Amino acid sequence: MGVDPGLTRCGVSIVDGALGRQVTAVAVDVIRTPPEMALPQRLLLVADAAEEWMDRHRPEAVAIERVFSQHNVRTAMATAQAGGVIALAAARREIPVAFHTPSQVKAAVTGNGSADKAQVTAMVTRILGLATAPKPADAADALALAICHCWRAPMLDRMAKAEAQAAAAQRKYLERVDKQRKAVLG
């Protein structure tokens, strides 16, 4: 499940990943909340809709765009809050959550970490073999997040396993050194 978080428009998508880089679009939509509504109620609407998506589609993972930096602090806070309630909904269902920066998503989908929205939309349309481009941009961004995660997750898993193996080997080495030191000191 890919999520482009936002309070006014929150893009959500489901894709199926296959061997290699093959991905298929399953569903995409935009959760909308009225700007005049109070923040807690808007967050509740986003959370309820995201939970309904998770319960209906049962994703193996949820990929959420990481709020990196924005010029408008208020917008950044709202985006982070929307992403937070979605991450919470996934955690309650024991669905792994991954956060990807906008540049990671753009680089994965277009090959250029500073691609514009039109380039991202064009590549999402091409990668998924869609007849028409997903609209609005929040929908295309949610699909791009899901695609990015399908392509990056195997590498991230391998890196995590390698780091865990290195940490275990280091612990074992330090235990051996400590044991030898104690034997010498006696």
Describe this structure in words.
- The protein has 186 residues and is an alpha/beta fold.
- The chain has a single domain, classed as Ribonuclease H-like superfamily/Ribonuclease H (Nucleotidyltransferase, domain 5, 2-Layer Sandwich), CATH 3.30.420.
- Helices cover 59% and strands 16% of the residues.
- Helix 1 packs parallel to helix 2 and helix 4 crosses helix 5.
- The longest helix has 49 residues.
- The protein starts with a strand and ends with a helix.
- The mean pLDDT is 92.
- Its cofactor is Mg(2+).
- Belongs to the RuvC family.
Jot down its keywords.
alpha/beta; Nucleotidyltransferase, domain 5; 5-stranded mixed beta sheet; 5 strands; 59% helix; 16% strand; globular; DNA repair; DNA damage
> What portion of residues is helical?
55-70%
Structural class: alpha/beta
Label the CATH architecture: 2-Layer Sandwich
Number of helices: 5
Widest sheet: strand ordering: 3-2-1-4-5
The CATH class label is: Alpha Beta
Distance between the termini: 58 Å
Mean pLDDT: 92
Blueprint (SSEs and pairs):
Elements: E1 2-4, E2 9-17, E3 23-32, H1 39-57, E4 62-65, H2 73-92, E5 97-100, H3 102-110, H4 117-128, H5 137-185
